Amino acid sequence: MSHTDSVDGHYIAGEWVTGEGEEFNSENPATGETLGRFTRGTDREVTAAIDAAEAAFAEWRELSYVDRAEYLWEIYHELRERTDELGEIVTRECGKEISEGRADVVEAAHMVEWAAGDARHPKGDVVPSEIAAKDAYMRRKPRGVVGCITPWNFPVAIPFWHMAVALVEGNTVVWKPAEQTPLCGRIVAELFDDTGIPNGVFNMVQGFGDAGSAIVDHAVDTVLFTGSVEVGHEIAREVAAQSGTRAACEMGGKNNIVITANADLETAVRSAVLSSFKTTGQRCVSSERLVVHEDVYEEFKSRFVEMARSVSVGDPLDEGTFMGPLIEAEHREKVVGYNDLAREEGVDVLVDRTDLDSEEVPEGHEAGHWVGPFVYEADPDADLRCTSEEVFGPHVALLPYSGGIERAVEIHNDTDYGLAGAIISEDYREINYYRDHAEVGLAYGNLPCIGAEVQLPFGGVKKSGNGYPSAREVIEAVTDRTAWTLNNAEGIELAQGLSAEI
Ligand code: UN1
């Protein structure tokens, strides 16, 4: 289906609505080609979507878990059967190389499988009571309307991290896809539409930050957010001032890989290349700091630098490409600005592919937002912005250290963020020390720090987040727990020996 000949709108109360907001385009970041025309959601569409979701909640919550999950199973099968087709759309719209485009759809399928499968798992707990004739249970209730605000870099997977669990638990949703990936938004909404899910249970409003703010301002019952640190903190502040709204936000990182003197260097180099350059550094878990022991530093450096010089940057639809373009011109300016800043801050630049050679840019892709790896060496004790602020691009610092694992972890933890990190070492004592002291939500041993599986909590500490909007952890954010107790005896007996005499 072509999405360029008409203007696509929002999906509200089971209808496609164009709305009255300004038009915007979806653009292929590798070619500049227009992929579709969309309208920006305004407060009007957000209000209509929330009203629809509120109205649909009363009946949706009464369905059984298993019945609610049936709609998700239909989507699961579509995602599985159409992985190649949808993966190509992901790649065209967000520029990730094609195996990553497909993996995005597969990750979405995994999350749907987890959430829908969980519908048949035990819910709640039976809790012992002090009183023999009393039953005590922990039960969950859906909270109501869940607002989901998702980023462009996993335009199919992350929406399902939020929505699959929220829906199976009995909530209704209002989702705003990222403004860079409205076509993926459209496709996901079509998947829901095709299931015949009751009107208003799933709603999608296209748009920019103002539409996201409108969702938060309307005090929906829960806000799930994955995206930038600035926006996540704004949402957390806004929600804290409201009564009754809950938020789970997962934000960015300035992620480290520690490579100790006992590392297998092949594993180290491959892990660092995969973590730093896959998705062109645009994962919130991408690594931008490599903390390397002095004993292996020179060898690691020469092998890493050689790979950074040779990894292919190019057409993301080409199976042989390792890195596609950055998402948009504005983001390229930011990444280039950090490369300039690093030079100004006096670091030792080892690889600089900021501007690709003209023959590296594939034909017909001159309008793409290209940038290659930028690698430099810096003193871990220097107070530099380039080694402490998140760039979200293929911009990576080598930070040599001397001393033991304690010193490496001290450098590792010396950032405001705490999302993901890895250690490469053959020494289990070092690995265990890292496991216990690394200030991150996702920690890896002898692996890259990308590629988390959906059944694990996904989120960070420090500036990186205040929640884990994925899998089981979403259940906490989208349900309330009731401690339910039932008296099976005739009289009233109270706990703690409290007198029931009147
Ligand atoms: C992100 O970093 O923005 O762990 C999400 C991974 C993916 C999800 C990444 N499963 O790399």
Automatic annotation (TrEMBL):
Residues 16-480 form the Aldehyde dehydrogenase domain. It comes from the Archaea. The lineage of its organism: Archaea, Methanobacteriati, Methanobacteriota, Stenosarchaea group, Halobacteria. Keywords: NAD, Oxidoreductase. This is Aldehyde dehydrogenase family protein. Transmembrane segments: none annotated. It comes from Halohasta litorea. Homotetramer. Belongs to the aldehyde dehydrogenase family. One of its GO terms (molecular function) is oxidoreductase activity. InterPro entries: Ald_DH/histidinol_DH, Ald_DH_C, Ald_DH_N, Aldehyde_DH_dom, ALDH7A1-like.
